[in-house]
Amino acid sequence: MLDSGYVRKWVLLVLAFLGIFTPAAKAAGPFEQGNVQGTVALGTGSAFNQDYLILGIGAGYYVLDGLLLGARVDGWFGNSPNIYQVTPEVRYVITAVPKVKPYVGVYYSRTFYEDLPDLNALGARAGAYIPLGDRVFLGAGIAYEQLQDCDKSVYRDCSRTYPELSLMFSF
After folding, report:
1. Dihedral angle at the C-alpha atoms of 78, 116, 40, 67, nearest 10 degrees?
2. What are 19-74's pLDDT values in tens digits?
3. From CA 56, how far away is CA 63, in angstroms rounded?
């Protein structure tokens, strides 16, 4: 059963994160150099033959038009062991497409398991941002990651492909 204390802590963390940005957005487009991106993620996942609720929060900075350097932190809750993941990434958003904004990216992930060895992974993602408002987008895509130094006797599968949904805010 999911502990409501975990959910409450993550909701407060998301609200605090969003509160550090002012609503005055730059006149430039949301994917242009100098803009900041905030991401909130909510999903489900499976590990060790158990289902988890995944809550994530991330931030990034556009160093060039369309080129984001960012990081995200995810918590997997509702079962044991608790799992936490830190994921720095590089993502490129194709801004020349008029409505939907396709993206591709690569990332490194460090996963921390309660009572198990931590794991590193390398991954890639692709998808698109769909506008919901002037500076709010729904992100939908797919990710593939390969675990490094993976022991198949502990971790049944050392690679995985999964869908991603996120809500992105640009400032």
Report:
1. -160
2. 433 333 333 489 999 999 999 988 888 888 889 999 999 999 999 999 999 999 99
3. 23
CA gap 41, 57 in Å, rounded: 6
Which domains are delineated in the chain?
Answer: 4-170 (2.40.160.20)
* DSSP helix/strand/coil, 6: helix
Distance separating alpha carbons of residues 45 and 34, to the nearest angstrom: 33
**pTM, two decimal places:** 0.76
| Residue whose structure tokens are 């900041």 | 36
Two structure tokens written together for 80: 């044991």
Handedness of CA 120, 18, 54, 69 (dihedral sign): negative
Alpha-carbon gap, residue 146 to 101, rounded angstroms: 26
Q: What is the pLDDT of residues 120-166, one digit of tens each?
A: 999 999 999 999 988 899 999 999 999 898 877 766 778 888 888 88
